[in-house]
């Protein structure tokens, strides 16, 4: 027997007409999200490191990840020039320094120098990895798309997709060969002006697909 769910009092709105709230809830609803901590290098060799709150994985084989930049920023330009980028896992112990890397600085200023993080040479691409990060993906760009609305109008947001061509994992995070997400210290971006979340063993539950 199917029961009818209790009625809800809804706050409904059309985004183009405004949300009518103190802060746009969209980011908080679609979250928490993995952080795209992206290292790039310009054609002239200048390094850049910046966090992006719109980041995720999109395919298994080949492994494809992507991030969206609101505004055409140094990171997007560097990827267009070189076709390469590196994703670095942001963990709880790196949260403050990750936040420092989003400071608005000129293109010639390296966030590695700004934050004191250690650039570690990559094995398959030119941009360096963050040596302090326990997991890194070396990526080659597959597509760069300027987003558009349903009306076809271009949006000042750029989606960068890349194939992961090399993966580096701290062996301490491999338990019997299985990556230990629960204890890796991942941080994720929530909504509001400053909300972040962590992942820990207390959030872990297992659920297998039906056969």
From TrEMBL:
Classify the source by domain of life. Bacteria
Q: Where is this region: Disordered?
A: 1-24
Instruction: Tell me where in this chain the Flavin reductase like domain is found.
Output: 30-181
Q: Which PANTHER family match?
A: BLR2425 PROTEIN, FLAVIN REDUCTASE LIKE DOMAIN-CONTAINING PROTEIN
Indicate what this protein is called per its UniProt record.
Flavin reductase family protein
Q: Which organism is it from?
A: Acidovorax benzenivorans
What lineage, starting at the top, does this entry show? Bacteria, Pseudomonadati, Pseudomonadota, Betaproteobacteria, Burkholderiales
